[in-house]
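Bug report

Summary: structure tokens for ABC transporter ATP-binding protein/permease differ between web form and batch submission.
Environment: batch mode, default settings.
Steps: 1) Submit the sequence below via batch. 2) Compare with the web form result.

Sequence submitted:
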Amino acid sequence: MTDAAVLGGRAAVPGDDKSTRAAVATMYRLTSGHRGAIGVATVLTLVGSALGLAQPLAAKHLVDAGGRGQVVWPLLALLGALFVTEAATGAAGRFLLERMGEGVVRQLRHRLVGRLLRLEMREYDRHRRGDLISRVTADSTLLREVVSQALVDLVTGSLVAAGAIALMAWLDPLLLLLVSVTVAAAALIVASLLAGIRSASEHMQDSVGAIAADLERALGALPMVRVHRAEEREAAEIGARIEAAYGSGVRTAKLASVMSPAVELAVQGSFLIVLVVGGLRVNGHSGSLGDLVAFLLYASYLVLPLSSVFRAVGLIQRGMGAYRRIDQALRLPVEPTAPRITFTTARKRASGASAPSTTSALSARAEQPALAFRDVRFGYHPDRPVLRGVTFAVAQRQHVGLVGRSGAGKSTVFALVARFYEPDAGHVLFDGQPATELPRDACRRRIAVVDQNTHVVHGTLRDNIAYAVPDATEQEVRRVVQLARLEDVVDRLPGGLAAVIGERGSTLSGGERQRVALARALLARPALLLLDEPTSHLDAINESALTTVMKDVAQECALLVIAHRLSTVQHADRIVVLDDGRVAAEGSHEELLTASALYHELAASQMLRPGGESGSHV
């Protein structure tokens, strides 16, 4: 799908026309790929309905034959066979519809999950994750009921009602006219309620999404919530969302409760009119008792198809609220997978220049830095720049530290390296190639990241370590366990590498989660390893051990480390100092202590002296 234009805070959705016809057309498009099942189910439903319509005729002949004293057993047997066959065909049709509905929802959920996992990172800044998740769960579940029942009920109910009306017209046109007046009154009532039902349903689905988003936020920060005794406050905020959903749901139910009785009262009123007027006409010898019985049965049978039609129309309008939210999610922009072809690249390809040999290509790559920033400018918002012309490079197998005050742009540098965002100006280069001319997958294959907020997922310890390389051998896993100093964790946990780690790694300490993330990154054998505050959860002993690990890692790949603790990067080959989105200074620890006032200030605040000695370990 193409990217949606955002109008007034929401994407323009096909089918925003709130007419029933447009809603039915939109729901019908959802069943693409399942038309065969719908056709068979519709035929079975119509066959069952036709058998149902034949029953009053059989009853008519049964009554007339009984009145004449004739044998009625064959007619009774026929009536019973009609009942049984109708039930069997109806059950088969309903099963096909339910299966089709599950298939449509499965297809939608696959598309939604694939879309949400590939959204541009800016979209996660604009939309709440819990609300997006609810579109995969609650909204798609509502659509299942629409596509599995409402569409076919609308078609078959209309056809069956038309058939019943035609037979009623054949039996007694005058009585049909009286019935039509009451049914038309019910139709007007239903039509006046449909817009309100759709609007209330949309508000209810939005409120359910907000509940999911708020609950996901609170549970994700549960320790903070409890420490600050905010359970009641969070419950009250989420409770307000629940009340909003309740109010919208009650409004939907109120409108639907008015609609159903209107239909039922119309049909029951028709039945009473037919009974009174038809009875008088039979007494006046204007019709037979069998005709009256048949007409009454058709009038009563009209209740089901008419009710199903009106219910289907209401359900489709409710489903449109869910579909709008799903379609909005499916239209959110995703990360482009193909590289951007620049004029220079296109000209080289057009010229047919021969590709360099493998040896010369590897040699050229070795001479290029693993990572380079060239006058990179970027801001999460156009009027608030974060990076203001950053230029630096990380050579192959070089250990580079990135330091500066909070807010200087260090984490933003990592976000650009991982290509979560693209620079507003300037270039990020991998091995001398502009990142925009490479597929994102190729860029990310070169790197591994140990984030400040270590991500540990529910599963075994081995699953977490081997997340990037799920087919890693036991020897490879053991190697990175040793490198990351995780042996004590493996020994402590029951089951070792097979031990199940709780949600968000709740069974591990902060330092242990940090080391798990480090092992996971090392297992991928990246060309460039990014470490964001790798010692933020480590004690002095483990920090010293990590320093040794970083020296070993720098022999295999380039290393770029963000650090607030200067002791973490004091032995780096080079340190880049960021200040207000610019590179303020570069050099070794000793060089910067004398050449950079900002670095000297940072070092003094941590009592870090030349040579890497610390008066007080922070």
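Above is the batch result. After comparison, the two runs are identical; trailing whitespace caused the diff. The first strand starts at residue 6 and ends at 7. DSSP finds 21 helices and 14 strands in the chain.
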